[in-house]
Amino acid sequence: MRRWYHSIFILFLVYSQACKSPTQPLTRIAFGSCSNEELHEQMWTDIIEQKPQLCILLGDNIYGDTHDMADMRRQYDIQKNMPEYQALLKQCPVIGTWDDHDYGKNDGGKFYTMKKESKEEFLRFLDIPADDPIRTHEGVYGSYNYGPEGKKIKVILLDLRYFRDSTVKSTVKGRRYDQNPDGDIMGEAQWAWFEKELMNSDAQVHIIGSSIQFIPIDHGFEKWDNFPKARQRMLDLLVKYKSKKLFIISGDRHIAEVSRMNPEGLTGPLYDITSSGLTHTWDLSTWKDMPLEEVNQFRVGELIIQKNFGMILVDWSGQEPVVTIEIRGKDNQLWIPPFTID
């Protein structure tokens, strides 16, 4: 019996190290956003059941909304000390970026006065090492490379808060924001870094983590299209470098959906897969008899108004990797069936 337990323990260690080793090809990656630490219906266990080798958090990892860093640390500690979240950390590495609520101010941008202090709490939560490049620059953007030669995945996580110009409030009923035609969202230092990440990459798969939606333009809430000059600049870079198997994952909206566009100059379509609502989604009671719909001319498939997380599945068995994405919910309900990135 003792020998049996010892064998199981050794297998567990080997599996854990394989999940955390950057030299192992990744085949299962989880992602999601919007997890309120005060709510008990977390989805960490559902994610664990999918056996991810990596988990990407896309923002609103807590609901801080504060200038008090002691309070923010307390909220991070609630999230981090959950047994289910601790179990996820034992399953696989967790990386991420922030959005507004864990940044510290709802819909906040570069004028949030505690952004440097908030960054320290964010890095503490994710256990970012002291020698990590993220600590050498302002903001929390960073990149991660996984896998051996010929089977590499590059994850590029953007910071869309620290440098973002002010939004323009809309006077149109039902819309929160209009476009800021000359505003920026990333800042020059991050733009230069991002271009180098694309230019110097030899990865076979590229995942861009954006805390807010990139492709949708119709709704009146936070999105890249509120800063059209920055959105076009991003598209121009994607066309310029034509990185292999590149797609965007996003959060923020408390829904799940797949958006697809065909930018001129790209060899294939560009996808933006939104997974948002690990603990809560739209309050359906406020809709009453209204149709549960929101216009998105780029949407492929259905709008999902349920708690959800995403899974990226990579098959390396052929000459080129096959990337399949699906959206799941509580008890691993399949909300968006697997589809392949073209």
Write the layout of secondary structure elements.
Elements: H1 2-20, E1 28-32, H2 44-49, E2 54-57, H3 69-80, H4 83-91, E3 94-96, H5 100-103, H6 115-125, E4 142-146, E5 153-157, E6 168-169, E7 177-178, H7 188-199, E8 205-210, H8 228-241, E9 246-250, E10 256-261, E11 270-275, E12 299-304, E13 309-315, E14 322-328, E15 334-340
Parallel strand pairs: 1-2, 2-3, 5-8, 8-9, 9-11
Antiparallel strand pairs: 1-13, 4-5, 6-7, 10-11, 10-12, 13-14, 14-15
Helix pairs in contact: 3-6
Commentary on this structure:
This protein has one domain (25-340): Alkaline phosphatase D (PhoD) (Purple Acid Phosphatase, chain A, domain 2), CATH 3.60.21. Helices cover 25% and strands 22% of the residues. The protein has helices at residues 2-20, 44-49, 69-80, 83-91, 100-103, 115-125, 188-199, 228-241; strands spanning 28-32, 54-57, 94-96, 142-146, 153-157, 168-169, 177-178, 205-210, 246-250, 256-261, 270-275, 299-304, 309-315, 322-328, 334-340.
Brief rundown of the structure:
This protein has 342 residues and is α/β, with parallel strands linked by helices. 25% of the residues lie in helices and 22% in strands.
